[in-house]
Specification:
10 helices, alpha/beta, Aldehyde Oxidoreductase, domain 4, single chain, 5-stranded mixed β-sheet, 4-stranded mixed β-sheet
Length: 361
């Protein structure tokens, strides 16, 4: 992912285009008529909307106007990097498409005598806010307030459910919950004695989905500073715009996107596994040797979402998980290249690697 996104900027430069302009021109306008690598038709959504919204943001427009420096590699809008005293400043971007779909899951909902509803699903919350989102989905599907929903997760007795991986969990689980809610509402319409329990398995429904490729999208923009004397690289600002289908909970979704961008920053500048060439063991198998982003490394980060409903998935949800991470490292590397004129193809972009590339003084 990093290599492809970095090479896209190289291609734009060879074509004498800004990365933003090249992406905007060459991205298919009607993805529904395009065949993917696997031979499937693609969904009609594209990355053009997140990129357009990002580029038009006042925050980045002001940043681009400031880059009227000397000749050098193209930045986001085709402008050269600039100097601020002894520091070099550059901007970079990367756009990402990430495969999304829904996989079979099982959910059970019980209408209790006290007017509440117990939702049971074998989902897992690894800190992404899945529990909170599932409460909102269930409440919306049952047409009640969230306070009426009791959620139970992370138990294999609840039936099969997709794992919290591949940015597929929420889309898969929400489909099962909404299907169970529909069945329960139909039963409750006959006024049966409570409690009433229904179970929904989405195996048949997910298997019947139209055979085409579906993707979520992001556009990541970065501004960096480089000290040519020390080789130090710092990230000043990050902006991420995401097309992830229906946003169930804007607060938790934004936190997940920002968390992913911080992981991408850590990948770009800090994280590196060093192995002993003889034993194959990790030499730096602790946080003294394996560096990660600390609070002081995390810049001003903004994340927002664009409308991108997915019609083929019952809840309209697409995944947010990896999107924040995938493009951030490439955006930062492109910004470093914009500032210094030197392309880094190995991560992390360490101080010694910057110095060895002879950053211009």
């Amino acid at each position: 992912m990093f290599c492809r996104r970095a090479r896209c900027v190289d291609l734009a430069t060879r074509l004498a285009r800004s990365p933003l302009s090249a992406l905007w021109t060459n991205w298919p306008r009607n993805c529904g008529s395009i065949r993917s690598i696997c031979g499937c038709a693609t969904n009609p959504r594209s990355v053009r909307c997140p990129v357009c919204r990002s580029a038009a943001a006042t925050w980045w427009a002001a940043c681009a106007r400031a880059h009227a420096g000397s000749a050098g590699p193209n930045g986001i809008c085709g402008l050269a990097g600039r100097r601020e005293g002894d520091l070099l400043v550059g901007t970079g971007m990367a756009a990402v498409s990430f495969l999304t779909l829904a996989l079979p899951s099982t959910a059970t909902i019980t209408a209790e005598k006290d007017g509440t509803y117990t939702v049971s699903i074998g989902a897992s919350d690894i800190g992404t806010g899945a529990r909170t989102a599932l409460v909102s989905i269930a409440a919306d599907a049952m047409r009640v307030k969230p306070e009426k929903i009791h959620i139970r997760i992370a138990d294999s007795d609840f039936g099969n459910a997709w794992a919290a991986s591949g940015s597929l969990g929420q889309a898969s689980w929400s489909w099962a919950v909404t299907s169970a809610a529909k069945k329960l509402r139909e039963q409750l319409a006959t006024r049966p004695p409570l409690p009433v329990t229904v179970t929904a398995d989405t195996t048949a429904e997910t298997s019947a989905m139209p055979h085409k490729e579906r993707q979520s999208h992001s556009a990541i923009f970065a501004e960096v500073i480089v000290d040519p004397a020390t080789g130090e690289v710092g990230v000043r600002r990050l902006l991420g715009m995401f097309g992830i289908g229906r946003v169930v909970n804007p607060l938790t979704a934004r936190s997940q996107a920002i968390g992913g961008m911080i992981m991408g920053l850590s990948l770009a500048l800090h994280e590196e596994s060093v192995r002993d060439p003889h034993s194959g063991r990790h030499i730096n198998a602790d946080f003294a040797g394996y560096h990660i982003s600390a609070h002081a490394d995390v810049p001003d980060i903004e994340a927002d979402f664009v409308p991108d409903h997915e019609p083929d998935i019952a809840s309209g949800i697409k995944g947010v998980g990896e999107l924040g991470t995938c493009g951030t490292a490439a955006a930062i590397a492109n910004a470093v290249w914009h500032a210094t004129g030197r392309r880094h193809r190995t991560l992390p972009i360490r101080l010694d690697r910057v110095l060895e590339d002879r950053v211009p003084q």
